[in-house]
Amino acid sequence: MLEGADRSGLPGGLVATDWTWDARVGAWRADAIVYAAVVERLRRSGCNVEDRVPQWEPIRWPRADLLELRAEQREAVDAWRRTGRGCVVMPTGTGKTEVALAIMASAAASTLVVAPVRDLMYQWHRRILQRLGYDAGIIGDSAFRVRPVSVTTYDSAYIHMERLGDRFGLVVFDECHHLPGPLRRDAARMSAAPMRLGLTATPQRSDGRQVDLDWLVGPIVFDMPLAKARGKTLADYEVIRIPIHLAPEEQARYENLSRQVRAFVAERRRDQPGYAWEDLCAETGKTPQARRAMKAFHAKKAIEDRAQEKLRVLEDLFRLHAAEPCLVFTGSNAMARDVSRRFLIPCLLSHCGKKERIEVLEGLERGDYPALVCNRVLDEGVDLPEVKVAIVLGGTASGRQAKQRLGRVLRKSRKARAVLYEIVSTDTTEEHRSRRRRDSDAFDRTRRRRF
């Protein structure tokens, strides 16, 4: 809020489009995100300013037990320090967290770390305690313990940022590709923090909103391609695509359901030529015909996800890698449970509690479990035990999800080579999704193999 200026104009060359006149209090208002730019303009113009916004404070870390940074990590830190704002793009497993901790240590300011899920929030809490000796506050998961250095989730951040926006001089957005969503962006928009750091391996979004990261956090200041890390910082790897066929009865039902969906859409397009997926979703609550079409669509996708041949190939792959821990990624919770029951391995889904997840991951690390199956819960960010075999049974068309899943097995250890298998149902829309998610330099040498 800018007091002392009347409605006739803004002082100090401030940009009028950033401001709104609030007749209730007779003052100008702007989003907190413009705070740093506003202060800079006012000071340059010579205005006499009393700044009552910042409630953040300097931090004295109990210790700084940081790992020695590699050359590319030091380059990322130096690039960010030049402006104090911006995104660092590095492949999964190359040490983005260590980059952030080094920046936090040198900034020595009140810091809020924002993570996409609770697991990552607690992981950040452990890392800060381990490396900087600071017991950070926790905002989220039914806790609201705010300290000068705190960790939170995106959902908690945008809900509480109206109370937190003036308390942190540095905000770290982990997996910052989540930030430009229509609600989560408020976590950045309502924060006055002049220093902002975004971390991600995959900034691209299917809706194109990654361009908003420039003003929400700052431009990309460091971008490390996967090819630069492959075989050096990260393990060398290969991607093997295994096509499978639906069983005759599965294929017959799949084609019948496809015809139902196509017939409904074709009928609607006679009256509405631009009828699209969004229109079908909106109509499902209004007409029984749309509901039947939507049920047919989901039943069709379930056949792709849960094809019986996938389980047979998965069994062969388990035999091939009998002495190695494996990660299995599915396209649905139902398929994850199918795999868990069939092979008697743990299944991690989004509703699993923190204690259960820790026990399962530690069991995989100890060798108690030969494999672990999940849907999306381990797609990004979470530190995993050393695993060099990943098997993808399904997923979205997102290239970001594909690269994140590949990154789960790329942490380098000795000279071990990683491998990612992708099992795809042929003559289905899953083939199209597979092609789209492999449209990346990370998958440019994919091999095809039959089992």
Structure description:
It contains 16 helices and 17 strands. With 451 residues, the protein is an alpha/beta fold. It has 4 domains: 53 residues, no CATH class; 154 residues, 3-Layer(aba) Sandwich (Rossmann fold); 152 residues, 3-Layer(aba) Sandwich (Rossmann fold), CATH 3.40.50; 57 residues, no CATH class. The strands form 3 sheets. An 8-stranded mixed β-sheet has the order 6-5-7-4-8-9-3-10. Strands 13-14-12-15-16-11-17 form a 7-stranded parallel β-sheet, with helices on both faces. Strands 1-2 form a two-stranded antiparallel ribbon.
Descriptive keywords:
eight-stranded mixed β-sheet; Rossmann fold; 17% strand; 17 strands; seven-stranded parallel β-sheet; alpha/beta; 451 residues; globular
- End-to-end separation: 66 Å
| Biggest sheet, spatial arrangement of strands | 6-5-7-4-8-9-3-10
Give the name of the CATH architecture of the largest domain.
3-Layer(aba) Sandwich
What is the CATH C level class of the largest domain, in words? Alpha Beta
The biggest beta sheet is recorded as: 8 strands, mixed
Helix content: 25-40%
Would you identify the CATH H-level superfamily of the largest domain?
Answer: P-loop containing nucleotide triphosphate hydrolases
The number of distinct structural domains comes to 4
Shape: globular
What's the Cα radius of gyration? Answer: 25 Å
